[in-house]
Structure to design on (603 residues):
């Protein structure tokens, strides 16, 4: 079984601070990590390989430093990794990102599964998995919580939807996007880390994957960000300070009156 | 019908059905779509795929704001399957050339829309909280939380058509019936070549443990201020006295103190209850995106500068461990008096 796992390097979002003057993100000192939701994709790929044999190739589009995320994927257990890095890729929205990843997959030859995380924690769109499938004309199954009955030709999936889950049989090759329920991601082993340090990590450019120049980066992206701003707040808050015991009684009194006035009590 | 092959016009919403019954998200999208169509001085169309869709429900889409309903039916469209749905929808898009398509950020919308956007060479923006029409250009302005939800970004698609967006379920009130509305219901046959699918839906297992967070009138939500998983029991008396559903921030769910179905925010559920009581929640945009349309918001937090107070109607700056027990008891007594 040959499995490709597209991953993304993201800023550790809990650590993101905002510049209150300019309203922009302070990127200095923010650690870059593997998108936490991609770890579930990597883990399910490893479990499938453990059961059925084969190889796992991690794939990422990003600046040269995104190689660190790919090495982490190898440390977890991926066999190899490819970085897609080219100035022409910069500023890509989900359309242009899906295009580059799909072109790279085409360049890799035969495969059985492409396994993605459900979404990345920075962009939060969840659009790239289905986007890759669309470019490659493959079936895509999203929100997958379980994979079993795997054969050369098909596998059975549990897809988490609003009021329960669907049981699906999908023909391979296919694209899957995974949710947290699928597996607990393992930690990198010491041996994995050592291998990740030494492993040769090829970097492919637009030319290497035979990509169409006008479909790349910002120029190839249908969407444009026109404004970034901090949200306006419209409500007038009646705020009561309650730091000691007598304050608390008074504050709760006022809140109960407030709730009664609004007919909640 | 005369079709202009060059221009795209009209606003579409993707209505959804289950067992032939039109789902609530469809009416929420009508609220959004009607607003956009009026601003753009154009028609609103609801498109729906299925098999044996309830005729009264199709008429209800007209009564609630659609000028036209396009219903494409076939046995193979009974349940969402990405390949037939995408193939059929792309055919209809090609024939009718809408300018804007809005779908729910549901498991269906979030799968179908990106699959279509690639093939239609269209721009797509996920999880929009505000949709508007730009004055002058008429472009769709799509606003959504960005960078982990810390800021808002407004996005547009200047060159490509259609302009596509998804919006969170429960982020808008569903449109209601208006007297005297008329419209056209178009029944289309699904093209036979579109019905092949490499995915086969074998079964559906419904989950009884859904706890109705999105339907609740009152939600009590807990943030990292609760400090420990064991402390979650502190919220029980308050939830009981208010008959409230329990929600949580991503922090709380990531730490395993509550399960994912309780998560409220950009990466969880969107709720819009009559009363939202935020306990120990600082109020990241990622969280606010999931609850700021609540009618009344009450916040309890030790930090007087917490962002949550900016969206609250009433706030107590204090320690939740002191406030919660007193509050729960007082509410219980007040309710018993009635």
């Amino acid at each position: 079984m040959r499995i490709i796992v597209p991953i993304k390097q993201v800023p550790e979002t809990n650590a993101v601070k905002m510049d209150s003057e300019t309203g922009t993100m302070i990127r200095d000192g923010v650690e870059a990590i593997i998108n936490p939701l991609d770890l579930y994709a990597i883990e399910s790929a490893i479990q499938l390989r453990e059961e059925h044999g084969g190889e796992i190739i991690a794939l990422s589009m990003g600046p040269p430093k995104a190689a660190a995320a790919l090495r982490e994927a190898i440390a977890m257990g991926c066999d190899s990794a490819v970085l897609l890095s080219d100035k022409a890729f910069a500023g890509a929205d989900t359309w242009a990102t899906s295009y580059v990843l799909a072109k790279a997959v085409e360049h890799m030859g035969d495969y059985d599964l492409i396994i993605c995380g459900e979404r990345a924690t920075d962009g939060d769109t969840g659009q790239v998995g289905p986007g890759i499938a669309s470019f490659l004309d493959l079936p895509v199954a999203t929100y997958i919580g379980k994979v079993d009955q795997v054969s050369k030709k098909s596998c059975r999936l549990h897809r988490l939807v609003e009021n329960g889950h669907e049981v699906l049989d999908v023909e391979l090759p296919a694209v899957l996007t995974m949710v947290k329920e699928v597996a607990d991601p393992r930690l990198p082993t010491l041996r994995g880390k050592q291998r990740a340090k030494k492993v040769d990590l090829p970097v492919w450019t637009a030319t290497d994957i035979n990509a169409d120049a006008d479909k790349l980066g910002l120029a190839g992206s249908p969407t444009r960000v026109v404004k970034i701003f901090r949200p306006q707040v419209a409500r007038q808050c009646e705020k009561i300070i309650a730091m000691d015991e007598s304050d608390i009684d008074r504050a709760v009194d006022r809140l109960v009156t407030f709730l009664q006035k609004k007919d909640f009590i | 019908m005369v079709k202009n092959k060059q221009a795209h016009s009209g606003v579409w919403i993707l209505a959804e059905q289950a067992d032939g019954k039109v789902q609530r998200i469809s009416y929420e999208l009508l609220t959004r779509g009607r607003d956009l169509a009026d601003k753009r001085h154009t028609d609103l169309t609801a498109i729906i795929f299925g098999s044996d869709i309830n005729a009264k429900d199709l008429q209800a889409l007209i009564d609630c704001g659609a000028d036209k309903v396009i219903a494409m039916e076939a046995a193979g469209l009974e349940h969402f399957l990405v390949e037939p749905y995408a193939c059929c929808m792309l055919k209809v898009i090609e024939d009718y050339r809408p300018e804007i398509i809005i779908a729910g950020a549901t498991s269906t919308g979030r799968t179908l829309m990106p699959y279509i956007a690639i093939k239609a060479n269209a721009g797509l923006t996920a999880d929009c909280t505000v949709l508007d029409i730009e004055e002058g250009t008429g472009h769709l302005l799509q606003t959504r939380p960005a960078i982990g939800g810390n800021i808002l970004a407004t996005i547009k698609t200047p060159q490509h058509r259609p302009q596509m967006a998804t919006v969170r379920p429960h982020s808008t009130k569903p449109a209601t019936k208006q007297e005297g509305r008329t419209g056209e219901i178009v029944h289309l046959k699904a093209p036979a070549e579109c019905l092949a699918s490499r995915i086969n839906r074998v079964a559906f297992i419904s989950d009884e443990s859904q706890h109705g967070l999105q339907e609740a009138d009152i939600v009590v939500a807990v943030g990292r201020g609760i400090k420990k998983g064991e402390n979650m029991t502190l919220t029980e008396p308050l939830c009981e006295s208010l008959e409230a559903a329990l929600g949580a921030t991503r922090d709380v769910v990531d730490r395993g103190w509550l399960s994912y179905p309780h998560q409220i925010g950009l990466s969880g559920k969107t709720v819009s209850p009559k009363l939202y009581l935020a306990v120990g929640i600082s109020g990241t945009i990622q969280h606010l995106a999931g609850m700021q349309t609540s009618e009344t918001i009450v916040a309890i937090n030790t930090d007087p500068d917490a962002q949550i107070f900016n969206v609250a109607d009433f706030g107590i700056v204090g320690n939740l461990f002191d406030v919660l027990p007193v509050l729960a008891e007082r509410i219980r007594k007040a309710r018993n008096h009635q």
Notes: Residues 218-337 of chain B form a domain with the Rossmann fold fold (CATH 3.40.50.1220). Chain B has two domains: 11-194, 218-337. Confidence is low (pLDDT under 50) at residues 1-5 of chain B.
